[in-house]
Hints:
By secondary structure, the protein is an alpha/beta fold. It has helices spanning 30-33, 36-41, 93-108, 135-147, 155-165, 179-197, 200-205; strands spanning 11-18, 23-28, 44-51, 79-85, 124-128. The chain is built from 7 helices and 5 strands, in the order ββααββαβαααα.
Amino acid sequence: MDAPVYARPDISLIGRELGPHKADLYIGGREGASNPELLKRHGITTVVNCAVNLDINLVRTPDEAASEGLYGSGYADIRYYKVGLIDGEGSPDSMMLGAYYILDGALRQTMPKRHTYPFADGGNILVNCRSGRSRSVSLVALLLHKQQPHLYPTLDAAVSHIREHRELHPDEWFETPKPMLYEAARRASKWIDLIAAAPSDSVISNA
């Protein structure tokens, strides 16, 4: 059974000063991720889309126009990463682990100084899914717990923080996030510890 859907902000500030560029981290839904003026106002230069069932056309001026048999393509105004989690059953647990490293990479990347990379380093990050209350919550909670353990010593602590700052109503907490995504984040947390503890040559040789 789905919870009632309550009103919440288009985007919500969740974490501060993450990664080498000291990025602030936001969670939002479709409305926030597709609003360029809102993103600009909050210094958001990067969007990480968790949803497999939500695509946002961020290319304003394609450098390759759509033609018969081909989609248009080009640069967006922001850096855009697509993860593709399912809101419920259906995603292998390894996708949550992959999502963590994609978000971590978005925080840490340094852009080449070439015309084909028209992006500056740094800036704030928005993590979104369709509503910004389950997939995004799971992923951001995992990141906060692993990268700011002094603030969020457990995954539960990170989820509680997000529920408050995302203004999620207690009536919907049983699915914000959905239990299977919460459990995927718990397992990913253990894998992250194992990867961090393994010698780098061991990780490469066993890949």
